[in-house]
Design goal:
With 561 residues, the protein is mostly beta strands. It is built from 6 helices and 36 strands. It is 7% helix and 38% strand. Bound molecules: CU-O-CU linkage and copper (II) ion (CU) (2 copies).
Length: 561
């Protein structure tokens, strides 16, 4: 925040920093802490480790088998344990935490209409891998250092099985959660959700895919088996011994003392399915790639690039998105770029045919923070590449041909059906000196009383009004919603309490016009969503899915009555 010893700069917040950038860029140039614009971050940035790129194959994630299969449900036991992971062949194994001792966790596969029950066991040690900041809500004493509670992200789940942040349990304890799987096929995921330390638990390795299948999906004849690849995209920082470093940054990108909460974490290395800069050999044919942004804070703006180096003129491969967070799109969307905020998923069809012997790089040009405030900071490395696909010549005999899913019925929620509009102002949470203490929703924290009571079965319109300089991926538990539109607003008028929209409302792009449980709210923009609150009554939560924000304290409860 302010008073950085190195730079002697006193900056209250990003906005002030931006103003400085605009008015006195030259005053700042030359300090080695802040750079208002331009290239050169790579040069500035001191990586803890350097490794060769693309020498390790992409790990293919394992499926976990049920312990028991009953008439009406399958039973699983999933333990959270300490483990080690070979993240790169040039590094020693990395100490981490994993579901079933695996980082990333194993894939849970489920079928619509067939329930599963999971006994989640906390078998972790009593000491955390990372220093816990005990000054933020939920992590204050007497809360034990190691606590976990698993949440199935994107699922319509009874409140008691939702993994609410305060329902954490300690090493030696377990919780039995029931998942009905009464929703359409989708790429869901499970991860820890313990209040005040979710960012640390997920960073330690506690997340995995939950793939829900159904008949409609089966009829689509999509690439499956070896040709359906889930890809968990993350970023991590490792020290010279190959061990995880959790080093968040402050409001203007500065380094913070260890163990202190910071508004963002950006890792130095791209990690896909737990491996650093991996490659995957693919056949010249259709593949189904199921992408999940599982990073703490980092957005990915992805492309499939045939160019050899990130500095070469890009040569982008067109691909199709067929599904979003909560199911299939009304029709496939052709794309060359795909933006995924933390927690968002994309179901893609990529055609590698005709690309024999070529190398396709999964590239990224998203700013960190996103969308970026034209400032590059040495603590915020850009990750221009994540992994490579190497297209072979051979095409398996058994390679089937696939038909792209054609349009199917998709029920668009009607704005007129909405019974209420709720407004949520996303803003920095400032102390008396104007220093940022965190980020909040309607200037309330998670522990403040419930203010949103939703009637079961009704449709509501929620507007997220972003007054900050960062994009926030807002997530609701229980429901899959639809993006109605985004629109700018007059920030000056807003400080006087008037929400005055600017410009025309922008409907969602074709690849976002489906079921979502997480959607990006751009800076100085309003995101309007429609949701039908179906399923169950009880307490749920909604929050920003940048885990640093969620932990302090950009999360609110809501109830369905
Ligand atoms: Cu991905 Cu509240 O969760
Ligand atoms: Cu969730
Ligand atoms: Cu946020």
């Amino acid at each position: 925040m302010s008073g950085n010893a190195e730079g002697e700069l006193y900056l209250k917040n990003r906005r002030e920093f931006l103003r400085l950038c605009a008015t006195s860029a030259s005053a700042l140039a030359g300090t080695n802490i802040f750079h208002c614009e331009g290239i050169g971050a790579e040069a500035l940035h001191q990586a803890h480790v350097s490794v060769s790129r693309y020498i390790d194959p992409l790990p293919l994630l394992k499926r976990v088998a049920p312990r028991e299969t009953r008439k009406d449900k399958d039973l699983y036991i999933i333990r959270m344990m300490e483990c080690t992971s070979q993240m790169h062949s040039q590094l020693p194994p990395t100490h981490c935490w994993g579901f079933e001792g695996q980082y990333p966790g194993p894939i849970i596969e489920a079928t619509r209409g067939r329930a599963i029950e999971v006994e989640w066991e906390n078998r972790l040690p009593a000491t955390h891998i990372f220093k816990v900041d005990t000054h933020i809500h939920g992590a204050m004493p007497p809360a034990p250092e190691v606590r976990t509670v698993p949440h199935l992200h994107g699922a319509r789940t009874r409140s008691e099985f939702d993994g609410l942040p305060e329902k954490w349990f300690t090493p030696g304890s377990s919780a039995r959660y029931f998942y009905e799987n009464n929703q359409q096929a989708a790429t869901l995921w499970y991860h820890d959700h313990a209040v005040g330390i979710t960012r640390l638990n997920v960073y330690a390795g506690l997340s995995g895919f939950y793939l829900l299948h159904d008949d409609q999906e089966r009829r689509m004849n999509l690439p499956s088996g070896d040709y359906e690849i889930p890809l968990l995209l993350q970023d991590r920082t490792l020290d010279e011994h190959g061990q995880l470093v959790y080093a968040p940054t402050g409001e203007v990108g500065q380094a913070l003392p260890p163990g202190v909460w910071g508004p963002e974490f950006f890792g130095e290395l791209p990690v896909v399915n737990g491996a650093i800069y991996p490659y995957l050999e693919v056949e010249p044919r259709l593949y189904r790639l199921r992408l999940l942004n599982g990073a703490n804070s980092r957005f990915f703006n992805l492309s499939l690039n045939l160019a050899k180096r990130p500095t070469d003129i890009p040569s982008l491969v067109t691909f199709h998105q067929i599904g979003t967070d909560g199911g299939f799109l009304p029709k496939p969307a052709a794309l060359t770029k795909l933006l995924l905020g933390p927690a968002e998923r994309a179901d893609l069809i990529v055609d590698f045919s005709g690309l024999e012997d070529k190398t396709v790089t999964l590239s990224n040009d998203a700013g960190a923070p996103f969308p970026g405030w034209s400032m590059l900071v040495k603590e915020h490395p850009s990750l221009y590449e994540l992994m490579q696909f190497r297209v072979t010549r051979k095409k398996s005999e058994n390679g089937r041909s696939f038909s792209m899913p054609s349009e199917f019925d998709f029920s668009r929620l009607d704005e007129k059906a909405s019974v209420i509009t709720r407004d949520f102002v996303l803003s920095e949470w400032l102390d008396e000196q104007g220093q940022t203490k965190g980020i909040r929703i309607n200037n309330k924290g998670y522990d403040d009383p419930v203010t949103e009571s939703v009637k079961l079965g009704t449709v509501e319109k929620w507007r997220f009004i972003n007054t900050t300089d960062d994009a926030h991926p807002m997530h609701l538990h229980l429901v899959q919603f639809q993006v109605l539109h985004r629109q700018g607003f007059n920030t000056a008028a807003f400080t006087r309490g008037v929400l005055e929209p600017i410009g025309i409302p922008r409907p969602p792009e074709a690849n976002e016009a489906g079921w979502k449980d997480t959607a990006i709210v751009n800076p100085r923009d309003v995101l309007t969503i429609l949701a039908r609150f179906e399923g169950y009554t009880g307490k749920y939560v909604f929050h920003c899915h940048m885990l640093e924000h969620e932990d302090n304290d950009m999360m609110r409860p809501y109830e369905v009555i």
